[in-house]
Each structure stands twice: as C-alpha cells, then as structure tokens.
User: Fold this.
Amino acid sequence: MSRFFSEKYSSLTPYTPGEQPQDMKYVKLNTNESPFPTSQKAVDAAAEAAKRLQLYSDPEARALTAKFCEVFGFERDEVIFTNGSDEVLNFAFMAFCDETHGAVFPNISYGFYPVFAELNRVPYTELPLRHDFTIDVDAYCGVGKTIFIANPNAPTGIALKRAEIEKILRSNPNNVVVIDEAYVDFGAESCLPLVRTYDNLLVAQTFSKSRSMAGARLGFGVGNPALIRDLNTIKYSTNPYNVNAMTMAAGIGVLSDEAYTQRNCQAIQENRAFTVDALRSMGFAVTDSVANFIFIRHIMVDGETIYRKLKERGVLVRHFTKPAICDYNRVTIGTREQMQILLDTLRDILKEGV
Assistant:
C-alpha cells in the first residue's frame, strides 16, 4: 500500500473473489454462477436501454420496483434495489452497526461479512458452526447484536428452516436480523413471507444466481419500510445512481420471464441430486446442500490436491484454506454435461491413487 493509505484501513484484509483465470478454457464450477444464459427478455430490454445511456438511471428504480412488487406482492416502500446483494449487505453494516452495536455471524460463512465489519469499524463476533456444519440457532437467541446469516449458508449449502429463523427473530426484538438469501431459490425456505410480521427482519437476495445476471450486478433488500428508509439514507449519501439503466431494464425483463427462471432452478436441483449420488458412490462426503453448489470432501485425498489436480485438467472448483474446511472443495452445479466432466475427471484422479 502507498504511504498515503489511511491508517484506519491498514489492517483490512479484503475479500478474495473466486479466481477468473484466462490461461485456458475451463469447466468453470468455482464462483456459483448460473450455467444457463440470461433470459432473452432481459437481454432485449438491456439492449433497448443502451440506446439512452446518455441519461442517468432512475435513482428510485421505479419501473423495476413496480415489476418486482407485481411479481412478489410487496409495496414499493418495502424494497430497495442495489448494485448486487453485496451492496445491501454493506448498507446494513453501515446503517445498523457501529462501535457500540456490534455484529454477529457464523465463523464459516460468506467471506465478505468480516470484511464489511472491518471496513465499517464494527466490532464483531464469529460464532462456531456445529461439527456437522449446521448453525447453532440457540447461540443467536438473545445475542443483542445485529445478526447476519446466509441461508443457505456458504460454502456449506446447508439451510435453516423458516421456523428456526423465526426463533432468532423473536429472541432479538431490538436488533436487526439480516438473512442473506443469495441461494434460496434452489430448495430452501425464503423468509420473505415474514417481513410484515417482524419489523427487525431484512431479507437480502440477488439476481446473480437463479436469474443468471451475475455480470449485471443487481441485488435487493426487503424489509419493514422504516428499515428500507434507513438503507436509502445510506444509499443517497453514497451513490444515488447505484443501479445502472441497462441492469434495471434487464431486471424487469427477467422478472417478466419467471417460468424460465423456475425451469433453470429445477434443472440445477436435478443436476445437484445426480452429482451428489455419484460423488457419494466414489467415497466423497457431501453436505446436504440446498444451494446451487455442493461442499465435498474425499475420505482419502485432501482437498487441496483434488482442487489442484482438477485445475490441471481444466476443471475449476473453489478451495478454502481455513483449517476447519481445508479438506473440502465447493463445487458449483452446472449443466449435466459439465457435471459429467467433473465426475469423469475425479474418477481419473482417484485412479491415480494420489
């Protein structure tokens, strides 16, 4: 870092995104992107919006918000759209945490949570998962901090039931509970139906995964109108035009094609089940994921070796170095063809007796 870099960020360890190597063509199963193209309705709408890029985007995202409310049954003051769900999560750290109102989240979860906490100088506590990688619900009851839970969790893919999250909400009435549902559309229960019951609930979702729009950067938060006003205060104090016009138009397009989204989600769930069955027959332990990825460990071969040998053969998965999970790899669920390539490659690796 330069000699001008602020001392307040000198100890900040930034988030490490999944690698995007360009040295060869890979079967890319490392960043939880959708294997399916964006809805053609979204592509066409974005192309039309590109004709007016000389104008600022609508800071209120009125057309997009109206379409969202039509599809999901919310009011416009219950929704905020952001530049990916990462932005709504950062807004939540800024709005609902400070030096005296700390944050709490699992010690094995989305790697951006501690980064956002450090960035915003928020004291935080990381609560351990159980030995089976499930979240200990009781540990969050009455904790008295702003709570961040990815559901399904990452990188495990394991989800809490809605009733378990309600237990956390009821026991923390004076603290905001943020449920990060980036992967909820692949088999988990969403907490969106709870928003009008609990005024301390904020649900964050993204268009990146189930709606095939990772490159467009579109996320949203749904909550009590007072919470949304708080988040908008942060938004209008940082970047009012946070969602660009093409992304808004694409969002409207994909929301007009929900049947396409649901077909893709169903295909991923089927490919996940197919892959899990095959991996378990090969000696892999696999968590009970309801996300668009799985978390796998072989009983004989360490995770780093599997990651490295897959990459050498043109298959990318995500490996983590944290001691508790270093024997695991996270594998995005792709097309049936991509999953078959993964399985065949793993069989070859295991035959080598590494």
Observations:
- The domain at 40-256 is CATH 3.40.640.10 (Aspartate Aminotransferase; domain 2).
- The chain has ten helices and 13 strands.
- The mean pLDDT is 96.
